[in-house]
């Protein structure tokens, strides 16, 4: 059960990080016309890198949950 709590903490942290990224992208959209093209490209690239890392963390959390559920299914 402790493993499930850890997985839930990871998923909640991922959700928080996704919301943070959404706020950044919304701010970028709002100020897009005010910033130089090069700076917008850098911000966009950083957001993409951040999103890739979030996806990796999500895949890892899902894999942990799958493993946990498969182990517990075998025990029953």
List keywords for this structure.
76 residues
Commentary on this structure:
With 76 residues, the chain is mainly α. Helices cover 91% and strands 0% of the residues. Helix 1 packs antiparallel against helix 2. The two termini are 15 Å apart. The mean pLDDT is 83.
Distance between the termini: 15 Å
Compute the CA-based radius of gyration. 18 Å
Unreliable stretches (pLDDT < 50, length at least 5) are none
Strand content: under 5%
User: Biggest sheet: strands, sense, closure?
Assistant: none
**Structure classification:** mainly alpha
Averaged pLDDT, please? 83
β-strand number: 0
Question: What is the N-to-C order of secondary-structure elements (H for helix, E for strand)?
Answer: HH
Large-scale geometry: elongated
Give the helix tally. Answer: 2
Helical coverage, percent range: over 70%
Summarize the structure.
The chain is mainly alpha-helical. The protein is elongated. The chain has helices at 2-31, 37-75.
Write the layout of secondary structure elements.
Elements: H1 2-31, H2 37-75
Helix pairs in contact: 1-2
